[in-house]
Structure formats: C-alpha cells, structure tokens
Amino acid sequence: MERIAVLCGGVGAARFLSGLVDVVDPAGVTAIVNVADDDEFHGLHVSPDIDTVLYTLGGLVHEEQGWGRRDETFNAQSELARLGEDAWFRLGDRDLAMHIHRTRLLREGRSLTEVVDGVRRALGIGATILPATDSPQRTRVRTDAGWIGFQEYFVQRRAADLVRELRFEPGATPTGAVRAAIAGADIIVIAPSNPFVSIGPILALTGLRDQLQEARAAVVAVSPIVGGAAIKGPAAAMLAAFGYDVSALGVARLYAELADAFILDTEDADLAPAIAALGLRTSVVPTIMRDRATRADLARATVAAAR
Amino acid sequence: MERIAVLCGGVGAARFLSGLVDVVDPAGVTAIVNVADDDEFHGLHVSPDIDTVLYTLGGLVHEEQGWGRRDETFNAQSELARLGEDAWFRLGDRDLAMHIHRTRLLREGRSLTEVVDGVRRALGIGATILPATDSPQRTRVRTDAGWIGFQEYFVQRRAADLVRELRFEPGATPTGAVRAAIAGADIIVIAPSNPFVSIGPILALTGLRDQLQEARAAVVAVSPIVGGAAIKGPAAAMLAAFGYDVSALGVARLYAELADAFILDTEDADLAPAIAALGLRTSVVPTIMRDRATRADLARATVAAAR
Questions:
Q1: B90 touches chain A (CB under 8 A)
Q2: How many CB pairs under 8 A join A and B?
Q3: Residues forming a β-bridge with B142
Q4: For B42, which of A42, A43, A100 is closest by C-beta distance?
Q5: Is the ipTM of this complex over 0.90?
Q6: How far apart are CA A134 and CA B4, in angstroms?
Q7: A73 and B CB contact within 8 Å
Q8: What angle do CA B191, B197, B203 make, to 5 degrees?
Q9: Contact, A15 vs A289, CB < 8 A?
C-alpha cells in the first residue's frame, strides 16, 4: 500500500482528496489539513478546512458550493441574530452540530487530532485526517484597515481588502502524527489550495519545511491557479499583492525548493518549460475538478508524477 | 403600579404569566423561575423553565406543546446523533441558539441573571424574569434505579419511575434581585407548577421560605391539580408518592404555612371548605388555561384574591 500524505487547505484539497481515495487505497491516504483558519463563533470552535475535508470525504458536502452541508437550514443562525450575536459568519443547523460536538470534546481536554479522528470514524471515512497542528495558529491579515482575523478578512469583508502582510501565531508545532505521516510517506502532495493562507501556515509550522526537504518521498504540487485565476478564493490576488506572477509559474516559484514535480493545467501548457527550468518535473493535465471522473484523473496523474 | 412576584416552574407558570401581563402592567411583574431543572447537553447550558417562560412571554413558544419553539426543526440534533452524542434530550435548531448564546455568556463570566435579562430585552418582554438562583441547584431524583438527574428522570425515562426522594444541591442562595423582588412585592403568587420539583427548589433556597413568611405581601397559591390530576407532568404521581392527597387539598396542605389564599378549580369546589379549614382564603374559578381569555381571567382572580 502506497502511503500518500497530502498538505491540504479547504475546497480544492477536499475535491482532490475525493479523487485520490477513488484511485488508491484510502487507508494509505493521510490529509494534513490547515487549521490556521479556525476561529471561535458564539463560543464554538469552528475549523473550516477540516470540516470541508470531512464533509467532502463523508459524502455530506454541498457539492456546488464546495463547503458546508447540503440540505442545510439556518434556523439557529436567525435566532442567534435575534439574540444579538454577530451573524456575519453563517453557520447552518447541521454544521452547528459539528462545532458543538468539537467544542464539547476540546473543553473536556481532547486534542483537535483526537476529535477529528472520532468524527472521521463516525462519518465512515477511510482516509486519515490530521489537523496540521493542535496548537492555535490563527492567521492574521494586515490590510489597509489594520490587522484583522482571517475570517474577518475572508468572510466578513469578502476578501475585498488588499492583503499587505500575513502572520500566523508563531511557535505552533506539527503534531507527532503529522511528523510521522510525512516521514513515512511514499508520496507527498501539496494540494491545489491557496499557497499563502492554506499551505503557508502548514509550511510555517516549526521544523515542517525542513522535514519536507529531507523526506524520502517525492513531493508533487498541484497548481491552484489556472489561466491566471484561482479556481476559488483570493489566491490570485495574493500572488499579485506579494509580487508573484499570477499564474501556475508564480505558484511553482513558491514551491520550487520543496517540490520535485508540479502539476499544471492544460490551459497553462505554455508555462511548462519555465516551470521545468526551476528544476521541477512537470505534468500538464486537466486540473479543474468538475466531477468524479476528472478528480480521479487528476489524482492518477499526480500519483504518476511522483513515481 | 402593583408589584407582583410569581414563583414559577415551566409550562403552567408561563401560561399563568402570559395571562397576568395581559391584565396588569408587565413592568410590575417579576417571574422568579426554577433553575434546578437546568442541565448540560453537548456542553451547552440548558435552562428548561427559564426558556419556557421566555418563549411564552416572547410569543415564540410552541403553543400546543407548551414549551420549545414553534416552527422548530431538528437538523442539528440528527447530526449530533450521527456524531455519537447522546440524543435523548432533543434540542431544536431554533432552541439551540438560546443554549449556545447562554453558554457563551456564562463562560465569559456573566451570571445567569444577566444572561436572562439580556434575552428578555432582545425578545421585547416587559416583565422581569429572574432565575431563582445563580448557584447550581440541580435536582436529583431517587428512583428504584438509584439516584438520577432530573432530566434523566423526566425526559429520558419519561417520568415513569416511582420517585422515592428528591434532593437539590444544598447551599444555593436566592439572588439579590430575587430577594429584592420578594421584599418589594405587593402580591406574591405561587404559580400552578409542580410543588415538588418546580416550586420546591425555589423554596429550598437558603432563607427564602423565611423571607416569604415575613413578607408584607399576601401570598396566593394557584393549584396545579384539577380533579385529582396534574394539568401536565408528574405532580400527581409525586403527591401520591410522598403521601399527600392527590388533589388541590393535598397541594393546599403543602402551602398552608406559606400562603394566605388559594385558588382552586371549579371542578374541585367541594374541596374549598377543607382548604379554608387550613386557614387559607379560597377562590374557586376555572384554572385550566385553554386560551388567552381564560388565562387573563385566572390572573384577574388571583390578583383579586390577594387584595
């Protein structure tokens, strides 16, 4: 059984994983998921990327939206607003159950790793899902309005601000399970997620970048940028803000020191030579994960690129 | 403005209060509500009697049921069960918002009294609603299965056990606001609630029984028993278990030392002489609160009996 560790953000990573577990033994797959987007709402601990992965692999996700629950209702949310609670971060009724459950267990002293593993089992998910860290690592975003929390930037202000700087709480460490998954992996994938706010916080964990560079596994990165635009979210705007090409090439430059291979979309085939010149093996394949078949194809191409 | 303090349990008290605020200035009404039924579910603090009063006076209650929210959904509950949480205490999605809000504020250090007052304002309720105590006072019930929590007895086991003994956490004290409401009241009403598990815990608060006996206000009790049966809940079974007549007379004996007047149903008119012989003024009126008009009539009769 091939052991594949995948560094993950939210929607793009979750869709990638759903293809991967279709083409390899899920028991060999370990998702290492960003938790720097985590925040507390109404006293409940919310882990957006973790939940997107759980809901997607558990078959519960709102497919078109890419995150949250399908058949969702928002009755608790309306009542929270009536009671004067901030209502800009909308939590569905089904989704709330997850936050209530997680918060209870965390308050009782369980680690986020333990909580997520229990939920994974309850949802019948075969892949291992690991929070990148059990330490708080909350992303702060410097905009022209000052330093704000990630969810304030991303949800409340709809990612409309120019991002001047990003900061993660320093000193967060990867869990032992994460270190073991990286050390034991045959293949390491950097999922098609935002390089700055999804993959960035994972790479910022103490010692993790060194561990990746020393890993025996091949590291394959999948571009989240196609045709100069992000499939989802503010990755393109952030590439521009931080002075990178808004393209698969810009992403490849970010990962050049870490990765051995790079997957880019057929639409960006003309960038392959420049990416190869960075020292990366390139694979040019369709990367837009419209449906189950395209996700499986992308996963197959990614695994093949690592071998 | 007449100041009326009402000792309250859940449904019966809430319906009584809804009639009372229709016939007197709500600003003069203070509900002193049992919190010994409070419990924690999924890490959330649930206050069943408080919420029944809030929902009823706020116009949000499920009228036929008498408690909980109308137009309620149970999507979070289904998901909590999927995640392995105990599901016997069913919490609706709208109702959950209240528990989430309350739990957040309690964790941030607010008292239950402060939390309830904020909710009361948010729901546009004119009457004052006071938890009888801010101390934990959880009712324990001794059944043939041993000591169990009140909600285990009442909800999980559907009040089917013979109750051998009741115990409230000792040392709970009435809040300053409760003491002031009793001291300042022109009329004190014991609502038609369960004498043992709704009114009993309030009377068990340190010093409260003495304060009632010394109060300048007339104390009027409204029978929760009509024709030998409780309108709702296990009051009749408890009267029997503790050796009292299962009748308005049995209730009157429980309150004889505290009350000046006693309201009983027209169906029980034949018991009036025996109740009067206990030293209580009696009023015989319809006490079944079918609709707004009968609630208002009962409230008027109660206030009149106190004067």
A1: no
A2: 106
A3: B147, B165
A4: A100
A5: yes
A6: 53
A7: yes
A8: 65
A9: yes
Distances (CA, A) of A44 to A84, A89, B97: 16, 12, 12
Note whether B101 contacts A118, CB cutoff 8 Å: no
A299: its two tokens: 């996963």
From the list A131, A64, A74, A102, the residue with the least C-alpha distance to A289 is A64
Amino acid identity for residue B306 in this structure = A
Cβ proximity of B52 and B77 under 8 Å: no
**Architecture label for domain B4-138+169-306:** 3-Layer(aba) Sandwich (3.40)
Q: With CB atoms and an 8 Å threshold, state whether B96 touches A100.
A: yes
- B79 at interface of A, judged by CB pairs closer than 8 A: yes
Q: Report yes or no: A126 and A27 within 8 Å, Cβ to Cβ.
A: yes
- In the block, which residue shows the tokens 């090409």? A245
The set of residues, in sequence order, having a beta carbon less than 8 Å from that of B156 and lying 6+ positions away, is B88, B89
DSSP bridge pairs for B261: B220, B281
Predicted confidence (pLDDT) per residue in A164-213, tens digit:
999 999 999 999 999 999 999 999 999 999 999 999 999 999 999 999 99
Q: What DSSP character marks residue B85? A: -
- Look up the pTM and report it: 0.95
Distance CA A95, CA B76 (A): 7
d(CA A140, CA A197) in angstroms, rounded, equals: 10
| DSSP reduced 3-state for B45 | strand
A95: tokens are: 């989704």
d(Cα B14, Cα B193) in Å, to the nearest integer? Answer: 9
Q: Considering just the CA atoms, what is the radius of gyration of chain A in Å?
A: 18
Tokens, residue A139: 């992303």
From the CB of residue A265, how many other CB atoms can be counted at a distance below 10 Å?
21
DSSP B198: T
Q: How do residues B81-98 score in pLDDT, each as one tens digit?
A: 999 999 999 999 999 999
| CATH superfamily ID and name for A4-37+111-118+129-138+169-306 | CofD-like domains (3.40.50.10680)
Q: Where are the domains of chain A?
A: 4-37+111-118+129-138+169-306
A residues 108-147 lying closer than 8 A (beta carbon) to B: 108, 118-119, 122-123
